[in-house]
Amino acid sequence: MNKRYALDELYRRYVKSLYFYLYKLCGSASLAEDLTQETFVRATIHIHTYKDEEARAWLFKVARNVYLDEWRKQQRYRKIPFLSSFIKREDSISPYGLPEKSLLEKELAQQLEDLLQYLPENYRSIIYLREYEQFSYAEIMDALQMSEDQVKVTLHRARKRLAGLAMQKGWDYDRVE
Fold first, then answer.
1. Where in the numbering of this chain does the RNA polymerase sigma factor 70 region 4 type domain appear (predicted)?
2. From the DSSP assignment, how many helices (H) and strands (E) are in the chain?
């Protein structure tokens, strides 16, 4: 497959999910748009490292690196939170439209998203990729550059910390899983 055609196809297929992933990480619609564009600029530059069988994971890895570079740059000048709040999917305004239906009912999803802001970036990323984007363990391994054991342990710890936060709020543990 022609690499240029492949990049066009990747853009059409993943621009929305990359935008929402970056929005969840940075909390700003305009910054997420900029980071999405930067992701595809870097993908164009590094298209030679792309392999058909791992396209989605490769793009999310590029997006995460773009976000981390931006975050580090911002840290030099001022302290900013990793995430001000998770997106309200039905209220979002984006040139890319709305994401797929939420996996959780509306009320629980909002409460859960409020809790997620208290997790470290690596926990938020792994929960987002697994629960919202439906990544397999193999895809998460590629996107976050972790071993399978690291993915499983980190996901377990992230869920455990999230459950602990939920219990502090008086929620039933079962509502968080």
1. 110-162
2. 8, 0
Using DSSP's 3-state secondary structure scheme, residue 100 falls into coil
**Under 8 Å between Cβ of 84 and 22:** no
Alpha-carbon distance 164 to 161, whole Å? 5
- And the tokens for 68? 């981390």
> For residue 27, is it left (φ>0), alpha (ψ between -120 and 50) or beta?
left
